[in-house]
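Protocol step 4 of 6: record predicted structures for both targets in the notebook before any analysis. Target 1:
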Amino acid sequence: MNILSEKRRLKILLGLGGCIVAMIIYLLIFAFDTEIDKRHDKIGFIILGDINEAGWNASHYNGIKAACEEYGLQLLIRDHVKEFSGQCPVAIEELIAEGAGAIFLVSFNYASEVRSLIDKYPHISFINTSTLEHAKNLTSCFARMYQGRYLSGVLAGMKTKSNVIGYVAAMPNAEVCRGINAFALGVQRVNPNARVLVMWTGDWQVEDVEAEHAQILIEKYGADLLTYHQDVDVTGKVAEKYGVDFIAYNAHLEGYSEHYLASVICRWDLYYKDILQKYMKGELFSIRDNWVGVQQGVITLSDYSESVTPKMVSVVNSAKNELLYNNNLIFCDEIYDNQGQLRCGKNQVIDDKILLSDIDWLVRGVEVVE
């Protein structure tokens, strides 16, 4: 009788102990989830320029705004935040104080500037548009803009008559060089005799320098088509003034003539929806690099100018269809840089890790001029 009582008491104690442990675990999980839920509804957004300025700034803002509205999230904005000015760390502290659970750093060098702050707030999800830095709570997210560059290069190669194409570009980092190379490879696909001339401005937005470089490429070097990797459309304005064709970047432009051939466009609304879905599911901490492109419907070219013929459109569409079935179409087979070094061998592919971080060279056919 005593033995049975002891066994019964032991079972009761074990049962109570199990309940207490389960309750503690439940409370811990509930408290953690509550903290996440509190922060899920506020998203921070930091960007270099004015959110109403056509190009990089407005396209990103409109994209994340649409995505946040669809998911019922509150968007907290800090624009006009210059790189390495001390403004970005201040903006981050403010956004966290306001309850942001995720903060988008929408300029290339932000993450390098605020690396210590990212470590200081391990419970905050940081998302940056470059691959310079990584951390458990820092995910590199970007669109495969180079695929759009490739398609625009195909168009440029068919459209140029002088076989001189000018490219006004911010700086020779991996993102910009990757885009220039893809553009040049697109040009060479249809016109191996064309040259791509690059002029560096040294900044994402420095309008007087951009205008001067665009003018030099036309007047001195004879470029009859221009494109650019800058935050605004200054190069397009110069091209329009000279009656020269141009391909824009990151914006649907208005008020231009038929010399505005098309824009390289990213569906930033789809891009941000993809990231926010992962964030709300708690998946971002396990993702190092998140890269989307043509295959996800994110990258395309805008509507074409009337000066672009149906045959040209057909050739560009053919290249786009190939990308839909082969994500590695562009950087494959033999590729030499403009110094004669082999960068990709026959039947080889340059993988995403290298494309993201290690492209510091330009392909054969690209010249840097001053």
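Target 2:
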Amino acid sequence: MSAINKAALFQKLPSTDELLRQPDMKVLMERDGHAAVSESIRVVLARLRQEIGSGQLNDQSLDLALGGLSAAIERQLRQSLSYSLRPLINATGVILHTNLGRAPLAGAALDHVRATASAYSNLEFDVLSGERGKRDFHVDRLFQKLLDSDRAVSTIVVNNNAAAVLLALNSLAEGGEVIVSRGELVEIGGSFRIPDVMSKSNATLREVGATNRTRIADYEGAINDRTRILLRVHRSNFEITGFTEQPSLDELVALARRRNIPLMEDLGSGALFDLRSVGVNGEPGVLDSLHAGVDIVTYSGDKLLGGPQAGLISGRVDLVARMRSNSLFRALRVDKLTYAALEATLLAYVKRDHDAVPVLRMMRLSKDEIAERAQRIISQVESAATKPARLNVELVDGESVIGGGAAPSAALPTCLIATTHADLSADELNTRLRAHLPPVIARVEEGRVLLDLRTVFPEQDANLVEALASLKN
């Protein structure tokens, strides 16, 4: 298209002021305000200018676009004034999907958040004495029940596990050295690296051993008068196999006791229940570490615990007290909403009502239970009266994963809804599922769209049937 033709098309575009004077725009302004409507008009006009400039629009297609200009502006207005953060259907089978918000909260947690957020609360007020209280009390009392061991244990809460590691290292090792195995200098999501957070804490990293083999003698040989902590880090999202060696936790505890140096363990996920009950082996729990004699354990609230995003620090009362008195703790502390959600989640553990915590319930689902639901959905999709069937939906065996850096090699047996289409590729099907309301997030493997009901709430089944049935058109 020549520059002259493009210039003629540009001249057809109305100005923002012209559009604002139109009756339908005045109706929108009365409802949503002048500023929001003006911005939507500018966005739509800018989009048309870009399409003209790139040659996507000719004289005829531009006339069609201008005929639907009011509708386009209203759609843009609705989009600009709607929530960006919204619920969706996680059909990936990844229980702790970081990109999808990790652990969904229990119903009781949502109720408790709503009740405490919509009124004043005793966040830092002792109702009995009438004096100032501590916000830690609301959850520390429950952690003490759940982490009952042969010694007193205290727990504090910060905004995520990275903050927990930072606070612990800064409180206990500032100006000194922290000994850690080279095989544990991990990087997790968001480029969070153990060496980087250690640098921010003003502690010095002392690497020992090799990437694949570290012995207890390596730790002992590195201890000097500047050593403040022995650190063990859970390897998130990967495993080292083959020619490997790692000191046992008992060996590290014995060394820490012998040299009077605190032993800290960054568990990352941090389970408060026995994962072996759902067929996941080799993933340490918080209680396992504390019972073994670890002095400080850091872990997440929104992973295996199944609560809100939070960083949890549990361990020796005197060491936790040092962190609580660190001015950095105030900068990293959480608000009343997190405390409310965490308190309700912990109460479910205390009551042993594990199925009330969504991630625990998902992990405990059997393959047969999932297959029964999946077959019902397939039957409903197949019975939907539409054009001649171009969509193929079938039940196949598969595996779910924990996600969130927990048990990277563990897999839970499941049944999948496998979907293909005579006219659409798997990527095109996946795109259409994401465009559905609510969006359906699945995975694509070997030319098929796979949906795992382990991570789909039963009340979302009807939405999933609707989304799949729409693919038949």
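Step 5 preliminary note on target 2. The first strand starts at residue 89 and ends at 90. Residues 188 and 236 are 7 Å apart (CA to CA).
Proceed to step 6 after PI sign-off.
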